[in-house]
Amino acid sequence: MSTQPATHETWSPPTFQERVAALVGGTTFRQPVGGRGTGQDHMPAAHAVAAALAFVKRGDNDIGPDVAVAMALGSDHKRAAIIAALAKAMKLDRHPLCRRNLAAMGYIANVAFDIVVHGRHRGRVSSITQDDWDMLVPSACRVLEALADAALAEAEGCWRRK
Known about the structure:
The chain has helices at 16-23, 45-54, 64-73, 79-92, 96-99, 105-118, 130-161. The protein is mainly alpha-helical. It has one domain (16-29, 43-161). The longest helix has 32 residues, at 130-161. The radius of gyration is 19 Å and the shape is elongated.
């Protein structure tokens, strides 16, 4: 008999992937066919994710749904537009940190996309100090994650109301 105390799992909020799976009627539960049937008459999950998020897109300048689709599917689709929009927003920021690193904003946006979507990290460019890099890259990642999260929250709300 084990003398180890019983462990109690604490609740944690659902992950981004779990929320996307729930949005399209699936689950991340690790059992065969958990939450979805095996019938061939349903829309593929990738298409359902794209459709659900397409309905919450508010014009061509709204990259939140595109970021959410890229994160959910691990896709580079619309990568260039996402990076360009993030770099432009960071260049417009009047914070001294952003102003002194204007030339590197495209690279920082590109690195942030790779981290958020693919989990890949790249090295710092020599024109940016380590301290600036350590602040700019996580900030850019948080912006992308916040945009995706807001789009997903809106899609979830629309899905529940339908």
